[in-house]
Amino acid sequence: MSANGSNTVGLSRPPAPGPELRRRRDQLAKEIAELHWNLGGLTYEMAIRDHFRLDVLVRRAAILQERELELVEIDRILPP
After folding, report:
1. Is the pLDDT of residue 33 over 90?
2. Alpha-carbon gap, residue 67 to 12, rounded angstroms
3. Taking a C-beta distance cutoff of 8 angstroms, is the pair 46, 78 a contact?
4. DSSP class of 9
5. E strand or H helix at 26
6. DSSP letter string over 31-63?
7. CA distance 43 to 16
8. DSSP string, 59-79
9. 13-17, 40-44, 53-57, 63-67: which range is least confident on average?
């Protein structure tokens, strides 16, 4: 604790991200590509049958969005 009573421990620089974070980033990038591919295929199959299930598409898109947000956060943490 500093002289003015504040806690300065939180000001130290966090440790550099390890290889686990880079592996997770690579895994997410592959998963996102697969989710995009599958969402497109699912949409195509629904279109050729003229029977769209928006609830299914929205659920799959939400999963994709979650993974993309996680990837963005990891990219923000990792150094260039």
Report:
1. yes
2. 30
3. no
4. G
5. helix 19-48
6. HHHHHHHHHHHHHHHHHHTT---HHHHHHHHHH
7. 41
8. HHHHHHHHHHHHHHHHHHHS-
9. 13-17
Return all residues near 7 (Cβ < 8 A) that are at least 6 apart: 1
Residues near 29 by beta carbon (within 8 Å), at least 6 away in sequence: 71
- State the pTM of this model: 0.74
The number of residues making up the chain comes to 80
| Neighbour tally for 74: CB within 10 Å | 17
Reading the block at residue 75, the tokens are: 């990219």
Which residue's structure tokens are 């604790």?
Answer: 1
Q: Name the token pair of 25.
A: 């980033």
Nearest to 45 by CA among 60, 31, 30: 60
Q: What is the CA radius of gyration of the chain?
A: 20
